[in-house]
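step: validate -> pass
step: tokenize input -> pass
step: predict -> running
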Amino acid sequence: MEFRRLGRSGLNISEISYGNWLTHGSQVEEDQATACVRAALDAGITTFDTADVYANTKAESVLGRALAGERRESLEIFTKVFWPTGPGGPNDKGLGRKHIMESIDGSLKRLQTDYVDLYQAHRFDKTVPLEETMLAFADVVRQGKALYIGVSEWNADQIARGAALARELKVPFISNQPQYSMLWRVIEAQVVPTSEREGISQIVWSPIGQGVLTGKYLPGQPVPQGSRATDENGAKFIQRFLRDEVLEKVQLLKPLADEAGLSLAQLAVAWTLQNPNVASAIIGASRPEQVHENVKAAGVKLDEDLMKKIDDVLEGVVENDPRFTVTP
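step: predict -> pass
step: emit ->
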């Protein structure tokens, strides 16, 4: 495993991190989820990403139990706040002060830790003054409940505004967590340049394009049973990639992966890590073997010629429009 600095900070994180969005507490039984976490640890992954909304708080609890007994100082644990949790009361969502201050306490309890390394705003909240949100995050840091703050799926303007307030409040705002893959490059035009100026790194989710970049979805064929495309939550994210024109081009990437000595999934993860503003790519897993497979993308350097060949193959099916920074 190799490690990268997260933003303009002193925090080192594993360049491949483990996330439990659609698995822990929902798709995967707890013993299997624990086996995946053990596989991640064995592979050298030290960075674990979750959120209070995943499986309506259950994912945090599963991760907390799976990491129990590990040396806390050797881990980087990230979580997020924004989406509705609990019974869905009027203050059980968003980035108002009440929800943030109560949510961090709930997350820490479920994760069985005194602090998280990174606390992230899971989306931008247009209904709450940004000043209120950033002050609440600053207070979470000053109370020692989080070491750093970050965001997820904020656009360039929102990141710049948040960074300005963070400087005023003297709080370390160091990361953004966007969707990013060979097929979904909407952060490149605006979010990445703004982040570079502000000392912010990307921690990218779905580097394998919701599984499409593994090549297991074939044009003209039904989706495999038990795949993300059949999951109630995952299906809405993957649909945009299940067009035959996309799936046909993904199959054409196979010779390029073979040329690099990689599987399609490894090639996809390694591709995201070629972007110098990406600090880590989040992988998920329902089986330990998937962790062992995808972690082999760590430390892989793709040459310029191969990167160009990938662009040539995918021409016409890549989404670059920065208006889609926030997942529609």
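step: describe -> The mean pLDDT is 93.
step: cleanup -> pass
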